[in-house]
Amino acid sequence: MHIAMVSAECAPIAKAGGLGDFVQGLAHELIKSGETVEVWLPAYDVLRRELVSGLAETEPRLQVPFGGQPIECRLLRGSVEGIPLLLFDPHSEHRFFGRSRIYGEADDAERFAFFCGAVLAHFARLDRPPDVLHCNDWQTGLLPVLLAEKQGEEVQTRTCYTLHNVGYQGKVAPSILEQVGLDVAALMTPDRLADPHEPGLANLMVGGIRYAGFVNTVSPRYAWEVRSTEQGMGLQAVFDESRHKFGGILNGIDESVWGPEVDAHIPVNFGLGSLPKKAVNRRELRLRVGLRETEKPIFAVVSRLDRQKGVDLIQHAVRYALAEGGQMVLLGSSLDPEIARAFESLKAELGSGPDCHLELGYDEALAHLIYAGADMILIPSLYEPCGLTQLIAMKYGTVPIVRRVGGLADTVFDAHYSDKSFEARNGYVFDDATEAALEDAMSRAIALWRRFPQYFRQLRANGMRGDYSWRKPARDYLKIYRRLCELSAPAGSC
Length: 494
Ligand code: ADP
Prior knowledge:
Layout: E1 2-6, H1 18-32, E2 36-42, E3 53-66, E4 69-80, E5 83-91, H2 108-124, E6 132-136, H3 142-151, H4 153-156, E7 159-163, E8 171-172, H5 175-179, H6 184-187, E9 202-203, H7 204-211, E10 214-217, H8 220-228, H9 236-241, E11 246-248, H10 278-289, E12 298-304, H11 311-323, E13 327-333, H12 337-350, E14 356-360, H13 364-373, E15 376-379, H14 389-395, E16 399-403, H15 406-411, E17 428-430, H16 435-451, H17 453-465, H18 471-487
Parallel strand pairs: 1-2, 1-6, 2-5, 6-7, 7-10, 10-11, 12-13, 12-15, 13-14, 15-16, 16-17
Antiparallel strand pairs: 3-4, 4-5, 8-9
Helix pairs in contact: 2-3, 3-7, 10-13, 11-16, 14-17, 16-17
Bound molecules: adenosine-5'-diphosphate.
Residues 17-18, 21, 302-304, 331-333, 362-364, 367, 386-389 line the site of adenosine-5'-diphosphate.
């Protein structure tokens, strides 16, 4: 089967968060199982071209209709870690993908609408188009709409649309639809793209949900939450109406990237059979971030610093960890200036003392070292579509302390209160988004670390033993792709 994954991110060349890991991991696994996969991405100026092999333009160039005037777009082919890439590189005064970052621009709606228009233009002229287009998040929500409206329903049904975060829906001015040649009057109705709560705006995620052949979130629990609770962020009814083609598939992690046995970023590789070697990584982590060598547990945070991640609780956790005699390493990046300022002032207040290091920014290599060297990782999210950091941490013998939401609830089972067998318990879980609930979980974790180190080791081992690979999720996606092909004619195309 031939699958094109259309996305705003793909690790390691263009990553802002879990979406990048998702595309890389799923593409690797599908290729391993013999499928033909391509990743279609904008050719950002920040794309790490040094990691792309065989990068070359493929003729002819596209003329992408946009705002009444065609924009010329080069197509570049290459590959990263064996994953074939197709990069869309427009040439216009807008410099859509020449902004020194992936997201966060005032005209993100135009930038990604253009990307969808360019994908459609490419798709429309292929003799043998991919069997399935796998779209992701609001940035590509317009693509199933464009395919249906411009190419017909048969193509529309062969789209899988994965939602990595319903908090970002792409609510945009209807003029965006016009720019890519869609009929605004026909589409801005309550049963199509009009936002359910701000009917004057077009909601690109709603478009993707309504028009795609299948829609999924990145964990089963989040699928339930978005349909049945306020986590649907106003789209509960839209999910409910699409329930016949809606589900949740838990993400995996790419073990060739996130495997302590093979990780090239960490000083010493280790595994379940060589857990004591984790101590070497702990020592190196302390050296790297300037923490003293001492008999204290290292708490860690590796996160985008976004409201979703529970930033107030993260700040509280930093103070509480230090007050309870732990050490703290935080690596966090923020696009929100207010949140960035709050962490800058926390850093100024706590200083970079012998037990505390707050690093504000994005650092892939340091993230690997933190997973390998820390003892516990804190993830007090307000909502969490899947969460990869708890899965990665567990693989590296770092015990997660998480709030029971979304994918965190699906993957972390409390050391004391879970109804799972002892071997399946792998962390600490709390329910309320309060300081008291967080403290309770942290204090239970510290107590076990201090008083019962052999049980704490067992907890680490339980986490390391878990199968968080892409094997099962990739099989699930393949089943969906096959079903989409069966549903759409012509026979024998897949
Ligand atoms: P989200 O997609 O919401 O950001 P996930 O838990 O799904 O959260 O994925 C986060 C990914 O981004 C992980 O691979 C994590 O290691 C990485 N990451 C998050 N923040 C940083 C950072 N500041 N520096 C380096 N890597 C980070």
